[in-house]
Amino acid sequence: MKFASLAILPALTIPLLLPSTASAGDGWESIGTGMTSGASGVAVLDRDGDRIDALVLRDNKKPGENRAVRVRLDHGRVSKVDPIDWPGELPVDLEAAEAVPGKAGEFIALASGGKGFHFKLNDRRLKVLGTFQVPKGDPEDNYESFALKKVNDRLFAVWADRGQDARPATLHSAEFSVSKPAFKNPRSVPFRVAYPTTDVRHASDVEITSDGRVLISAASDPGDEGPFDSAVYAAGVLRADGSIALSPVPVRIGDFPGHKIEAMTCLSRSCGSLLYGTDDEAAGGSLRIATRNDPEDQ
After folding, report:
1. How many CB atoms lie within 10 A of CB 286?
2. Distance between the two ends of the chain, CA-based, in angstroms?
3. Which listed residue, of 51, 75, 110, 230, carries a Cα 20 to 30 Å from 134's Cα?
């Protein structure tokens, strides 16, 4: 796969994300303790005012370990965490969750090795509709993200190898058919962050806003006991042809010390608020709502 050329864009001006005032303490709400309770992917199931129901995926690998939970947040605080049984062959190391545009209750999950799962979720009943493999990239690719965005009636997928320290992340994009599933004309572009500075994964998750902005989280992961650190960037835009144009200087829109963000999803059309999930290894997983002063979110 060849790298696409970089278009030079003006820096994107986006207000710094702030913790939700509804959450207690530092804003993070636990969804479980220990190595098997992290959040590696998140998608919104339902939202009614200050109540949010979310699907959270976990990157567990062994039989008997939970792969997914349904979480309820009331006013930013976790009130329920219900396990979801995964029927049939268990996925290994799920790293991303994304709702399928225009298909209520349907989602895509991606594992670190590039295997994808198309599934339907009704309450806590999960049915796998099909599986696929993302187009072959570099042999070192380790995927931690998958996003979908519809542009002019064409559906595009964006996924990323996380990178590691001197090795940049690689953002991949392609037109995507959910029903087959299949990818058309895949493209790739390298991406790196200036912060965090050590033990860095340059792309721990990717989200595409309604107006095509590409948001990327990056995380420092020195090991199971941390200390962790994360930052979120407005990195560029998804163009109408499905290619990604990166800003020459990604705009850092949020810092989250002490946690390893591996999941994020917009909570509004303008993406003025987001739901983040962490996989803090031995310390377990947590969720947090972050907002910014955006009139469209009032």
Report:
1. 24
2. 43
3. 230
